[in-house]
């Protein structure tokens, strides 16, 4: 028997509020506050009723609210337990009063993410899908919403399942060879084939790991650094793109001393702009610190807007192959940030430079998953090294088993400690 928990599942301040109740006594507790007999009505049905408070001393009933009660019977509910959702009017007094009555009748207030943790523990979703619930709630643009929905539908889980099957096949062949090691004339594992399979698996894990940069950018905003010499219009460009006076604009060189960040959305994608100090030679120590941060911002950016004006050279900075450079000659007939000339074309170029993903792509956007993939790859690289050095099968099997267990951490197959689960779900909001 599980404790029955309750919490407000919607943000306060709206016209309506939903209170979620889940656990062994969910039906009896809710039924004690209204006329709906939750244990006898059909599952997945909605009923109009009144929440009432009964005073045993005066034998008087006070109507708290007229509500809709939705009944979900285990295991066909979000948590996999008997669950009830009470749709109330959004009054803070009403919502708090209903929660108070539920607690009086035996409920406990839910902790952060406890409903979703129960869904995971009851096999309604794996751990990566549970984490996708939090990402879905936090999604602030179409791109991050798309990533969360793909993960919630099991895109990552399916991909990892295929990898684990390949790893299990590899380790099974090696362990079978060990079982018959006293038969020298039998060979169950062709080392050349095993090496090819291990290299294929390693390449797949490496590819998944590399998608984290794209996933992180789409989830948190694509970093765009605005780089150029002083007074070429970098801050003016930032203000024009944001549609507000975010950065100070001045004719005095060195006005921008530190990086200024802000975001906009274009075509459902968040771009995180960084206006930086103008790059030039100066003896001003404070300004030099700003210039160092400008160069650092450029190195971290996915897209670099190199801004100049007629007669001023573009800044000479090193860039990597995975960075997109957009060169802008400001204060010309074709482009004038101050008057918005050329901005529409620039916005289009930014959208074109954003990472492209399809429905079938599996993109890693969770740092925990990324860390696990890196560790799994290290284990596979040890296997490849061992195969090339003709190490014994028992040593190779140990590394293979480690890789399998690490991949299982992502979906929750090897997550056993309550402390680890509490750490993951503590980032959820109450009511989910």
Commentary on this structure:
With 432 residues, this protein is α/β, with parallel strands linked by helices. 44% of the residues lie in helices and 18% in strands. It is built from 13 helices and eleven strands. The protein has helices spanning 26-31, 92-104, 114-121, 127-138, 142-152, 155-179, 191-220, 234-242, 285-300, 343-353, 367-388, 393-411, 418-425; strands at 5-8, 16-22, 45-55, 60-72, 83-89, 108-109, 222-228, 260-266, 269-275, 303-308, 324-329. Helix 11 runs antiparallel to helix 12 (393-411). It is flat, with a radius of gyration of 29 Å.
Global morphology:
flat
Strand order in space, largest sheet: 3-4-5-2-1-6
Question: Secondary-structure element sequence?
Answer: EEHEEEHEHHHHHEHEEHEEHHHH
- State the end-to-end CA separation: 21 Å
> Which bin fits the share of residues in helices?
40-55%
Find the count of extended strands (DSSP E, 2+ residues): 11
| Strand content range | 15-25%
Overall structural class, as computed from helix and strand content, comes to alpha/beta
Q: Specify Rg, calculated over alpha carbons.
A: 29 Å
Q: What are the low-pLDDT stretches, counting only 5+ consecutive residues below 50?
A: 247-258
Q: Describe the sheet with the most strands.
A: 6 strands, mixed
Mean pLDDT, rounded to whole units?
84
Question: How many helices?
Answer: 13
